[in-house]
Amino acid sequence: MASLDAVFGFLRRFAEEERLDPQAAYALDLAVEEFFTNMVKYGRGGGRGVLLEAVRAGGTVTVRLEEETPVPFDVTRQTATQFDTPFAERKPGGLGIHIAREMLDGLAYDYVDGTSRITLTKHVES
Fold first, then answer.
1. In sequence order, what DSSP letters do the residues of 23-76 get, joined into one string?
2. pLDDT tens for residues 24-43?
3. Per-residue pLDDT tens for 85-120?
């Protein structure tokens, strides 16, 4: 969690260099924070840490988070978020992933050879 400042600094520099509009930058910040903190809190990484990469190609930004872990967790699976249950009675979990997913234009997950990879895409103005 101590790396969150560095993560936000990286995203801020990327947004400035690529001249992202504030709404796209905010969506990426929120989504990356959600998935990064989940990797740190629940992952069983191999010590390498979480790789964070951001690339813009035309009107699309792609962000990749990658971590070595023996336990895959597919963030694209539907979560058991209880929208029809009163807030005080809800069990914690799933809401952050749901909100992040709604703010993005694409979310993909793959697990290959002990590595979890989350790929986020956001369409931006060219």
1. HHHHHHHHHHHHHHHHHHHH----SS-EEEEEEEETTEEEEEEEEE-SS---TT
2. 999 999 999 999 888 887 76
3. 666 665 655 677 888 888 999 999 999 999 999 999
Measured in whole angstroms, the distance separating CA 33 from the mean position of its chain's CA atoms is 6
Contact 79, 98 (CB under 8 A): yes
Angstrom distance (rounded) from CA 27 to CA 101: 10
pTM assigned to the model:
0.84
State pLDDT tens for residues 8-22: 899 999 999 999 999
Q: Is the pLDDT of residue 44 over 60?
A: yes
Q: Measured between alpha carbons, how far is 85 from 65 in angstroms, rounded to an integer? A: 32
Q: Which of 42, 100, 106, 97 is nearest to 75 (CA)?
A: 97
Orientation angle between helical segments 22-42 and 95-103, nearest 10 degrees? 150
Distance CA 78, CA 34 (A): 16
Q: 10 Å Cβ neighbour count for 6?
A: 10
* Cβ atoms 11, 54 nearer than 8 A: yes
